[in-house]
Amino acid sequence: MAVIVHGVLLAAATATGHASAVDWGTFVVATAIVLSGAIGVVIARNPVHGALMLVMTLFGIAVLFVLQRDDFLAAVQVIVYAGAIVVLFLFVIMFLGVDREENVAAEPLRGQRPLAVALVALGVTGLLLLGEISKWTTGAPSVAGSTDSSTSNVAQLGTSVYTTYLFPFEITSALLVIAVVGAVALARRPPMADIGRVPDTEAEIADATPSDTDDSPEATDGASDGAEPETDVTQQPTDAHQEVMP
Amino acid sequence: MTAATTAINGNISGEWYLALAAVLFAIGAFGLLIRRNVLVMFMCVELMLNAANLTFVTFANMLHDIGGQVLVFFVLVVAAAEVVVGLGIVVAIFRRRASATADDFHLMKG
């Protein structure tokens, strides 16, 4: 195995001339980590395993960032992606209890996989063709600053963010606030969510009953003004009160 | 490619990074199309976003333009916001119908 890797490295180094064996070794190892992690995400039957494979891919991408002298984004990649986003994924997986094994081989929609392969192949081919036959770059001069000055990567990035891209940077704060408010609004259980909805089962009625007793009297009055089936639900707590009262 | 794009990216030419990013994007798109678990589909979206990030960083080094790295910074922010709201929607749907499979989400009414 080591001999093979060494041979590949030597061949690659001689093929490209100036690249050092250390760079190529890092690149090959990081590529293997990234690709195996990505394939693992796609074929993992258990979502938890998929999330851990995603961490592997993100770490490999961070290694590739370091290899391109992009230190700050590599650190951010590990902290934000592997540290926050994947933990959020795992949190939701555990919270929902969907960490069951899924039968990946089952194919409910016939012809979906060949169609997916064809679509992806078409997209990648179109991308490569566009890269070959058309002009990608506009030739416009950079307004954000150069990457190869003597200052550090963090200083360059910070200068660019706080001067050229100051307004988009401010907009991201609004975006994050909107995301937080949206997440809270989605995750919050509305207090009177069952108004106007017919209780499906006896279990739901039984679930709704104790929460109604916790509500204030005005809330139960408002609920009794609702749809007809709701009166069955709201009458139960009043009956319970009458039983308790004497 | 122009003369500016032949700059070294850590001694490895940028085309290798671009090819890797293309393969990673293809894997992510394929997974997004074939998987049914909504959480796994989100992870595949993250794979595609990371492929785009790798492309941005590579072009930033090839064209000597720090703007590509700034753009990666913004993509990270958008990805974080997207994951937060998306997982909130998944949790909200899961509360109504105890399933995280995309095939079951065929009613906007819930």
What would you note in describing this structure?
The complex is a heterodimer of chains A (246) and B (110). Chain A is built from ten helices and no strands. The radius of gyration of chain A is 29 Å and the shape is globular. With 246 residues, chain A is an all-alpha fold. Chain B has three helices and no strands. In chain B, helix 1 runs antiparallel to helix 2. The N and C termini of chain B lie far apart (51 Å). At the A-B interface, helix 2, helix 3, helix 4, helix 5 and helix 6 of A face helix 1, helix 2 and helix 3 of B.
The gist of it:
With 246 residues, chain A is an all-alpha fold. Chain A contains 10 helices and no strands. Chain A has helices at 2-16, 21-43, 47-67, 71-96, 112-133, 153-162, 166-187, 202-214, 217-224, 230-244.
Strand content of chain B: under 5%
Question: Rg of chain B from C-alpha positions?
Answer: 18 Å
Q: Nearest-angstrom radius of gyration of chain A? A: 29 Å
Structure summary, number of beta strands of chain B: 0
Sketch the major β-sheet of chain A. none
The average pLDDT of chain A is 74
The description of the largest β-sheet of chain B is: none
Element layout with pairings:
The complex is a heterodimer of chains A (246) and B (110).
Chain A: H1 2-16, H2 21-43, H3 47-67, H4 71-96, H5 112-133, H6 153-162, H7 166-187, H8 202-214, H9 217-224, H10 230-244
Helix pairs in contact in A: 1-2, 2-3, 3-4, 8-10
Chain B: H1 14-34, H2 38-62, H3 67-96
Helix pairs in contact in B: 1-2, 2-3
Descriptive keywords:
heterodimer, A: 246 residues, mainly alpha, 10 helices, 71% helix, globular, B: 110 residues, 69% helix, 0% strand, elongated, disordered N terminus
